[in-house]
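Entry type: protein chain
Record version: 2
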Amino acid sequence: MPPTLILVRHAQALHNATADYTIHDPELSELGHEQCAKLRKSLIEHPLAQQAELVIVSPMRRTLQTALRSIDWLLEKGVKIQADAGWQENSPKPCDTGTPVSELKQDFPSVDFDTVDRVFPDKTSPAAKHYHFTKKAILHRAQTALEQLYARPEKVIIVVTHSAFLRLAVSGCWFFNADYRIFDFAPRGAGPDEDDDAYRLEQHEETQTKGGGLGLSWKEPVVLGSELPVEDPDAEGGVSGRGY
């Protein structure tokens, strides 16, 4: 049986606070650190979070800091935290471009970076086509990330990741800073097309009706793939959507 997923958006980072998207791989803001304390309390009190057997985290500073400040109690029990470039944010802006793994290993020694894609943090070269800022690449990356979790043996997995990737490629739900939602995998082939075998998620009623585990997020659904650029927006003739 595939695992239940607790999908978490990182707490407020410096680019969120300042709207300065030129900050490279920003860290959490002062408010972000405060938000982590509230997120931590909510997760500790949630029975499903207590059952988590694995933590997956985007290898960006803001997600790594959020995970280590809100799920440290799981790590103390021996739960593994594993970085996965497949869960990084959509755009190639400096704020959404990561730091080399060699540096991250020094700053976050408790995180397992051994399986991070070797192309990370590149998101623009031909070798990094899996991470290109296009609708096709982002939706494919989301399906790959979900497929990998679908096959995991753990019963509950926590993923700490990013708003636009979650909203536009994974779940079709809004995530405000330091909020989370809980999902199960939908039965395979449950889409409108009988031949469609995509990986889809079904949200638990408690976070759907409340607007997230902390009740911070908008409840309106979002169409997967909307706002994403059909082609590379930086390429000549590219068709741009916001996508972040």
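Comment: The first strand starts at residue 4 and ends at 9.
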